[in-house]
Every structure is written in C-alpha cells, then in structure tokens.
Write a structure and sequence with these properties.
Blueprint lengths: L6 E5 L4 H12 L4 E6 L5 H12 L4 E5 L5 H15 L4 E4 L9 H23 L8 E6 L12 H17 L3 H4 L1 E8 L21 H5 L8 H14 L5 E4 L6 E3 L13
Parallel strand pairs: 1-2, 1-4, 2-3, 4-5, 5-6, 6-7
Antiparallel strand pairs: 7-8
Helix pairs in contact: 1-8, 3-4, 4-5
Length: about 260
C-alpha cells in the first residue's frame, strides 16, 4: 500500500509516536488524517503545528476515550462523515502505569480491540467494505519480559497475540494486520516516575532502560510508514535504539517445537 491519497485514523495521535506518525503520513501525501485522543492532550498545539506544515483540511482532531464504547462508536461515525472511507487505522493510544493496572488494561488491550473491531466492521470486505490496513503499536515488551513493568508487558503481549491471530482472517475481511514493536522511546509514556508496583525494586527501570538508549519518536514513525507501505499481512516489526527496523516471526501452533520434557 502506498500512503499517498489514503485516509487514515490514528488513536493517541496528539503526542509522542502517534503525533510523529501523523506528520509522516501527511509528509507522504496521505489525503486526510483523523486524530483520536483525549481532550486536553495537547490537541490545539498539535493541530496548529500540523496545519502550519501541511495546510488546513488535511487533519482533524476528535475527542475520544478508547475505553468508552459509546463514545468510540459515535466518534467513528463523525470520522467517517469527514473522511469518507477509511484506508488505514493505526492504534497508538497507550499508557504505562502498573499501579493503575485496571485502567491501563482498559486502554492498552480493551480499547485497542474495541477500535480494531469497529475498524474491521467499517473496512472489512465481509461487510461490504474495500479492505484496508490496521497497524497496532505494541512494544518490544510484547515480545520479551519487562521485569519492572510486568502488567504493562502483559498488555503488550495481548496486543501481539490479538494482532497475530486476526491476521488469519485476512481472506475473509481483506484487512492487513500489522504490528509495530518499538523499544524504549522518548515519549510522555515513560516521562513520569513511580509507575512500578510497590514491591518492584526502586530504580530497576533506570538500570534496565537507560535514558541514553531511548530512541526519538520520529525514528519509530518513519518505521511505521515503511511497514505500512511494504509489510505483508501479519508482518511484525521491531525498531529499537534508533537502529534500522527489522521483522520478527510470531510463531503459530504449527511452528512450535515438539520436543518432550
């Protein structure tokens, strides 16, 4: 898929990786981009910056909390009225706070599944749509353990499992399911302290994720565009420490070893 002239929806697009991805979509001549994010999420500054770079009428902000079913449904109706057909859905909304694990699961897992299913209903060939692409942003923590944020890690494993499973419905829905797994990135997600459970060793996050190892969100956003334009259905990509992105295999049950204990 070429991003040019496509209409995209991105959750969590007002800051961090999401905002940089909006910039990259417009830079690659996407027709229009709808940003879904919480109110008071820097949306006015974000829209002003984007309009200065790319002109008006190519981007619009929609207040939306992905944890609220009715709000998401009504927001997508407004988005479709503005965009017309949706070609690309990018699920970038996410939080990292193991102390508020219930709300984190609501956002990172339930919210992502909610928006994905609505996107599938709108784009899916099984429902009269023309197909499209859904790209879910997980984390390198969805592929490998994260000792200081185990519940956050669990939510990202869920995103990996959901996306890898949904790819198997491509013949029915005609929607590519893509997965981006960034390593530590300089975003508001990890800008706060005191995110760990009380029994986690204080300072462990600084030992395991040094600030100097964090990559700029722009680097991840460029990898996202490359994945959208080149990735086959089910492609899973890692981008870490500012190095070039690379694909990883998510095994199916048929790929598992059969060695005995």
């Amino acid at each position: 898929m070429n991003v040019k002239d496509k209409c995209a929806v991105i959750t969590g697009g007002a800051s961090g990786i999401g905002f940089c991805t909006v910039e990259q979509l417009l830079h690659h001549n996407a027709k229009r981009v709808a940003i879904l994010d919480l109110p008071n999420s820097n949306e006015e500054t974000a829209i002003e910056k984007l309009e200065e770079q790319f002109g008006k009428d190519r981007v619009m902000f929609f207040d939306c909390d992905v944890t609220k079913q009715e709000q998401v449904e009504s927001t997508f109706k407004k988005v479709v009225e503005w965009l017309g057909d949706i070609d690309i859905l990018i699920n970038s909304a996410g939080v990292a706070d193991d102390k508020k694990w219930r709300s984190m699961i609501d956002t990172n897992v339930t919210g992502l599944i909610r928006t994905s299913l609505i996107g599938i209903d709108l784009m899916g060939k099984h429902n009269g749509g023309k197909g499209g692409t859904i790209l879910n942003i997980a984390s390198i923590g969805g592929l490998t353990p994260v000792s200081f944020l185990p519940i956050y890690c669990a939510t990202k494993y869920a995103v990996v499992g959901f996306t890898a499973s949904m790819k198997l419905s491509y013949d029915t829905i005609g929607i590519r399911m893509l997965l981006m797994c960034p390593g530590a990135t300089n975003t508001p997600l990890l800008s706060r302290n005191n995110l760990c459970l009380d029994f986690i060793k204080i300072g462990r996050e600084n030992e395991e994720m040094k600030p100097n190892d964090r990559q700029p969100p722009e680097h991840v956003a460029k990898a996202i565009i490359e994945l959208i334009e080149k990735g086959e259905n089910g492609a899973a990509c890692v981008v870490n420490k500012g190095e070039p992105p690379f694909l990883v295999d998510i095994p199916t049950i048929f790929d598992l070893p059969t060695h005995s204990l």
